[in-house]
């Protein structure tokens, strides 16, 4: 959960990968009104990471730019932080102005954050592009949307959520439009087929079992379960494990 405008919101985490260099290559949020926390980390100046969000005409486009309130991020000058540009379906672009530095404490992950900007507009119908360009080493979070429901994230080159390209790394049974069920997760509860739920999304961890640096047993114990607490206990706020996990995503857990 992240706290915005005095209201607690549950933002589903999405980690941008090094390969997400353009909006077309980055993940697509199939409903940009659902709350997501897009995490981007950079090691040097000039790097780009991007993503997309589908919105309907009249939807509320709600975006927040955040950093963790600790060094080195909170010690960086505003001019040294990555630049965020939002491009509408009609091609109009807006550069997000970093015009505040408001502290707040997020109790779920026990992390202090800083709001640097909050942007809102009435959306046009279509896909919005979000491009983040670094000015040096830094990590930021871009929060999009405010509906506390499970959302779907697609990866691939197709610009709309009608893509038939599977976002999974290996062939798996198809999910319904409402997502995967907990019954399906529980049925895949062994090393031969290992699914787990983390933060409202279903992951196929089968191929990761024998490659996990901490040993196969740590992953096998998660098979067929909601592993949210276990993952956050081991890897809270760690970009590399979150990015690796994202590569095994099947889709949203149905409610």
Plain-language structure description:
The protein has 255 residues and is mostly beta strands. It has two domains: 2-154, Jelly Rolls (Sandwich); 182-252, Roll (Flavocytochrome B2, Chain A, domain 1), CATH 3.10.120.10. Helix content is 11%, strand content 40%. The protein has four helices and 19 strands. The strands form four sheets. It has a six-stranded mixed β-sheet with strand order 3-5-13-7-11-10. A six-stranded mixed β-sheet has the order 9-8-12-6-4-14, with no helix packed on it. Strands 15, 16, 17, 18 and 19 form a five-stranded mixed β-sheet that branches. A hairpin with a 2-residue loop joins strand 15 (189-190) and strand 16. The longest helix has 8 residues, at 228-235.
The largest sheet has its strands arranged as: 3-5-13-7-11-10
Number of domains: 2
- Relative strand content: 35-45%
H/E topology pattern? EEEEEEEEEEEEEEHEEEHEHHE
Structural class: mainly beta
Oligomeric form? single chain
Terminal-residue CA separation = 18 Å
């Amino acid at each position: 959960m992240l706290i915005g405008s005095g209201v607690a919101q549950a933002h589903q985490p999405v980690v941008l990968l090094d390969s997400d260099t353009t909006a077309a290559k980055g993940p697509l949020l199939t409903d940009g009104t659902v709350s997501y926390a897009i995490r981007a980390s950079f090691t040097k100046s000039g790097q780009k990471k991007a993503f997309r969000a589908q919105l309907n005409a009249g939807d509320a486009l709600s975006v927040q730019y955040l950093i963790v309130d600790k060094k080195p991020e909170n010690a960086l000058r505003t001019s040294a932080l990555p630049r965020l540009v939002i491009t509408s379906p009609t091609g109009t672009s807006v550069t997000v102005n970093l015009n505040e530095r408001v502290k707040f404490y997020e109790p779920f992950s026990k992390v202090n954050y800083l709001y640097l900007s909050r942007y809102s507009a009435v959306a046009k119908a279509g896909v919005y592009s979000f491009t983040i360009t670094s000015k040096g080493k830094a990590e930021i979070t871009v929060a999009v949307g405010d509906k506390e429901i499970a959302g779907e994230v697609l990866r691939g080159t197709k610009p709309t959520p009608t893509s038939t390209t599977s976002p999974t790394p290996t062939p798996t049974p198809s999910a319904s439009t409402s997502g995967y069920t907990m019954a399906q997760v529980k049925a895949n509860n062994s090393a031969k087929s290992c699914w787990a739920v983390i933060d409202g999304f279903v992951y196929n961890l089968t191929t990761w079992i024998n490659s996990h640096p901490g040993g196969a047993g740590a992953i096998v114990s998660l098979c067929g379960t909601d592993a949210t607490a276990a993952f956050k206990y081991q890897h809270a706020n760690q970009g590399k494990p979150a990015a690796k996990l994202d590569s095994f995503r099947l889709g949203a857990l149905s409610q």
